[in-house]
Structures are given as C-alpha cells and as structure tokens.
Fold this protein.
Amino acid sequence: MTRSPRNRQIGALTACAGALAYTVSKIDLARDGELGMPGFPAPQEAYARVADVTAAQLGNAGLGLLMALVALLLVRPPAARSVRWAAVAVSWAGIAMVGAGVAGFGARAAGVAPGLGDTPPDMGTALAALTVGAVWVAGWCVAAVGAVRQASGPAPAVRGPGRTSEGRAGVSSPGG
C-alpha cells in the first residue's frame, strides 16, 4: 500500500459515503418501522425485544452520521496528535464493528449461519448491502492505514541501489 495522501483521501471519502448510505438506510427503515438491514429483515421475535423500533433505527442512523464524521477526519488528519490518534483509534473500532456486521450478514446470506436469521428473501438487495459494507470497510482501512503512516512520517526515498536520498545505505528491493 502506498503512502499517497490521495489514496488516504479516496479511502476516507469512500468510508464516509458508506457510512452515509448506512445512515440513509436506517432512516428509511425507521420510517417504515422495520428492524434489520436492507435485504435482511429481522425475525419477528426481534420486534418483541425492541420497545421503540423507530427510535432504535434513528439511533443507528445517528451512529452512522458519527462514523461518517470520523471518516471525514481522515481526509486530512488533524495536526493535533491526540485528536489524530483518537480519530484513528475510533476508526479501527468502527472498521471492526462494520467488518463483523458484513461478515455476519454475509454468513447469513450464504446460509451458513442459520442462528443469525433466515436466508434473505431478496438476494439482490442483500448482495448490494453486503457490497456497500465491504467497500466501506476497505475504504476505511486504506484511510486509517494512511493516517497512521502519515503520522509516523514519510519514508526516505531510495536513490540508486541501496542508497536513500540522504546518501545513506538503505534497504533496496531486488534489482534496484
């Protein structure tokens, strides 16, 4: 993976778009009074455990907005070290959370985790939701890694076989 700020920015914007898509989907489900995810309706017994479906889904939408804002912080990471590292730490927590959701819903769609619910009735919508989630996680990973690499400073440029731009001996790749 390159240290390109452009790659980090594209990854962060992709993650932001994924979080906003999640937010919109949760608002839509709240409006319809439904639990679950697009393509993945919640089992009927889940409704007995949720006192207010609309409030629960709007809370999830709020979490989506928060994730979008954190992803935006990685477009150009803050100069303040504590804020930058907090954004990176929250990003990795979000990546783990969203990644676990994609894995779980993917297992449900494949029918290998019947304990998570029935196979989706509309596989096209389910696969679209899984694709958005996977791209969201990938973009967020690129952005978080880029922010960490930026914080650790630029790598020395290698000039000639085994030499850095400062003229010191460095690690070179085979053939160069």
